[in-house]
């Protein structure tokens, strides 16, 4: 998808700060961090949103969640904790239509979701 921002980041056509990478997954720093740790985790293949996930995507979804555990260990927030967020669709405020998870932490996020 040549017009997709995160496909272009995955393909290194647009610069990003890498945090973690496997054959199926890429994680990089959010350009406008909202917490001391704010990482975006994306599948390398283009999937437009959580709504678009099917059985065909089980392998990459498994890798995304395993990647989270590796990233939080690498960044030292495994024990202090973190939040994993997916925005899907207009009401969520999704702005980039390539599936991604926000991994945020590095401070107390409180007990409320929003
Ligand atoms: P969402 O609102 O869930 O679609 O989140 C999109 C996220 O992408 C936002 O947190 C943006 O700050 C982030 N973002 C947009 N452009 C870039 C970029 N070039 N590099 C890193 N993060 C970006
Ligand atoms: Zn894409």
From TrEMBL:
Protein name in UniProt: Histidine triad (HIT) family protein
Listed PANTHER family: HISTIDINE TRIAD HIT PROTEIN (PTHR23089)
HIT domain ranges (all copies): 5-114
A GO MF label: catalytic activity
Taxonomy of the source species: Bacteria, Bacillati, Bacillota, Clostridia, Eubacteriales
Active site (catalytic residues): 100
InterPro entries from the UniProt entry: Histidine_triad_HIT (IPR001310), HIT-like (IPR011146), HIT-like_sf (IPR036265)
UniProt short sequence motif Histidine triad motif, positions renumbered to this chain: 98-102
Native source species: Ruminiclostridium sufflavum DSM 19573
Source species, domain of life: Bacteria
Pfam families per UniProt: HIT
């Amino acid at each position: 998808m040549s017009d997709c921002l995160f496909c272009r980041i995955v393909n290194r056509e647009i610069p990003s700060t890498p945090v973690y990478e496997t054959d199926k997954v890429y994680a990089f720093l959010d350009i406008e961090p909202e917490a001391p740790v704010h990482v975006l985790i994306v599948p390398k293949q283009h999937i437009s949103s959580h709504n678009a996930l099917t059985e065909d995507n089980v392998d990459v979804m498994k890798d995304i969640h395993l990647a989270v555990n590796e990233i939080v260990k690498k960044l030292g927030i495994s024990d202090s904790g973190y939040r994993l967020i997916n925005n899907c669709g207009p009401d969520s405020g999704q702005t980039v239509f390539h599936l991604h998870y926000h991994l945020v932490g590095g401070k107390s996020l409180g007990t409320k979701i929003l």
